[in-house]
Structure formats: C-alpha cells, structure tokens
Write a structure and sequence with these properties.
Layout (H helix, E strand, L loop, with lengths): L16 H9 L3 E6 L35 H12 L7 E6 L9 H12 L12 E6 L6 H11 L3 E9 L3 H6 L6 H12 L4 E8 L6 H11 L6 E6 L2 E2 L3 H7 L8 H14 L5 E4 L9 E3 L6 H14 L11
Parallel strand pairs: 1-2, 2-3, 3-4, 4-5, 5-6, 6-8
Antiparallel strand pairs: 7-9
Length: 318
C-alpha cells in the first residue's frame, strides 16, 4: 500500500485539528478554554460521588477562572495567545466539567455571550463554538437549541466516552454506559451536529487490543473528530491510590505510541484528530512523567508511523 497523497511529505500522517481548521477558515484558528463553573452528575450525587477516579477537580484543569465572566476569561486568554500568534480566528471552548449540566438559561447565556464577542473590526473573529459534556446530560430543550445554533455557527459537541468497555467504565466510576453514549450520538446526528469523542488510553485493566477496539468502534460512527488522551495519574485522585497499591501499571512512551498508531490505522482517513496526547499538571502528575514532554510524545508517534510505514486509515474498513 502507498501512503495517501494528503499525508505524503507532511509533518504528520494523520489529519490534525489545526490543519483542518486552517483549510476550512483560511487562517490559524485557536480554541480558548473557558470555565463556567459547572459541576458533574457523578460529583454532586445525582449519578455518583467523587467523580471519575482519574479526575482531580473536574475536567478542564487548564480552563479559565469560573469567577470571571465569559468575556473576561476570553479576553485574558486571547491576550496571551496574541503573543505567539496574531491575525487568527477563535473558537470559544466550554471545557471545564459538564457544560450542559445546568439551567437552560445558563447554558444558552454563556454561549450567546461568547458569540457576541465576534467583532472583526476589533480583531476578534469568532468562527465557532465547542462544548464539552457527557452523553447523559443533554436535555431535549438544549438539543433543540444546539440544532438552531448549528445553523448559525461551526458547532462541535465533545462527548467524554473514554472507553467502549462498560467494565472499565464502572471501575473508573464513569456512571454512564456505552449504550448511553450511542443514544446521545444518535440524537446529535439527527440534528447534523458535529460530534467529537474523547478516548483515554491506559485505563486500569485495559489491554492494547481493548483500546484499539474502542477506536475501531468509533470508526463505525459518522463522527466529526476525536481526541486520544493518555491517562494521567494525578496526586489526590482515587486512581493514584490504585497505582500506588500496584493494581495497574502506567504505559511506557513506546507502548503509548504503538497504541495510538494502531488506533489511527483503523480510524477513517478524513476524521479530524484533535489530540494524540494530553496535558497533565507538572505539580500534580505522578505518572507517566514522560508525558510532560508533549512534543516528544507527538514526535514518537510520528516516528512510529514512519517506522511502520503507516498512516491514519491504513486499515480502515478492514
């Protein structure tokens, strides 16, 4: 098999988020992470308590300050990004915790405030909205709003799945099932809404084949994009206690690169790969410490693909 033309000679042998957005909007597009102070149904007792076992203080540790308005958070992050990039466009990303787990007024209010920031004459071009949530937390009313919003802007709803294996989901206290996820996807697809799915590699008890199986299952769905994360074992989490007790081991860099490459091989070649690793706070991270060198991880994945003469979609459909 020959490498597809779109990957030949490129920096990566998979379709990155930055490349896709540049093609679509004709410029650099930056996502700005926001924190609107939401909680989660398996933190507040509705579904469970304590949150997912790997979660330190809710997802989105690097999002903004929830005591500030959407506008204030956005402008603060934008100012920092302008020191590295200029002349680009922006996607407000409601990242922290479950951003559809609240009142309809709060959910729609935060989104409309973000959209109202669009002011090309002032150098602020808002080209889309990204919303992170759980597959069991989108009401019919919010879904109808998303359907209308999707006609106004480039909308992506990001669903935390982490694994297709319900046994693993129970072990990490995920408090929803794979069937819950599939039903949510069907509802979003019915409104033509872009769906991004999050998977975590390295969860306790999972083999490389199980992780690849999660990716292969995602290849059967009409997804817009996917994020492949590494399990970060953080101080103060339940999973850190399991790790210290020797209940499971952390992945090595080589193991992780091999798993990601196997996942990329079975995913559709046109699926946007938003992430191939993630960030863990330096002060909180117990393991794997090699993940602190993010570019080293990305380079190792690139080298593994080249070494294996492989690319995204090589085995898709087989």
């Amino acid at each position: 098999m020959n490498i597809p033309q779109e990957f030949a000679g490129g920096q990566h042998r998979y379709l990155t988020q930055s490349e896709y957005l540049k093609r679509r909007f004709g410029c650099k597009v930056m996502k700005i992470s926001l924190n609107c102070g939401f909680t989660c149904p398996n933190i507040d007792g509705t579904k469970g308590t304590g949150g997912c076992t790997y979660c330190l203080a809710g997802s989105g540790e690097f999002a903004g300050n929830p005591s500030e308005s959407v506008t204030a958070q956005f402008m603060s992050v934008k100012e920092k990004m302008e020191k590295k990039w200029s002349g680009g466009a922006y996607i407000p990303y409601f990242q922290a915790n479950t951003n559809t787990y609240g009142s309809y007024e709060k959910i729609t209010g935060m989104i409309e405030e973000a959209l109202a920031l669009n002011a090309p004459e002032k150098g602020i071009s808002i080209v889309g909205i990204a919303i992170s949530t759980r597959p069991d937390c989108i009401s019919d009313r919010v879904l109808e709003y998303f359907g209308e919003l999707n006609r106004r802007t480039y909308l992506t709803v990001e669903l935390g799945l982490q694994t297709i294996h319900d046994k693993t989901a129970q072990r990490i206290n995920r408090c929803h099932t794979y069937d819950d996820f599939l039903r949510c996807c069907d509802r979003l697809f019915a409104h033509d809404i872009n769906v991004c799915v999050h998977l975590i590699n390295g969860l306790p008890g999972e083999t490389p084949d199980m992780m690849t199986a999660s990716a292969r299952a995602m290849a059967l769905l009409p997804l817009h994009s996917i994020k492949l994360h590494l399990l970060h074992i953080l101080k103060g989490t339940k999973i850190a206690e399991e790790y210290a007790a020797g209940d499971f081991t952390a992945l090595t860099l080589r193991e992780y690169a091999d798993i990601v490459c196997s996942q990329l091989e079975v995913l559709p070649p046109g699926l946007i790969i938003q992430r191939v690793t993630g960030d863990g706070g330096r002060d909180e991270l117990i393991a794997p410490l090699w993940s602190l060198k993010k570019f080293t991880v990305i380079n190792e994945i690139d080298k593994t693909l080249r070494r294996n003469d492989s690319w995204q979609g090589k085995f898709y459909g087989r």
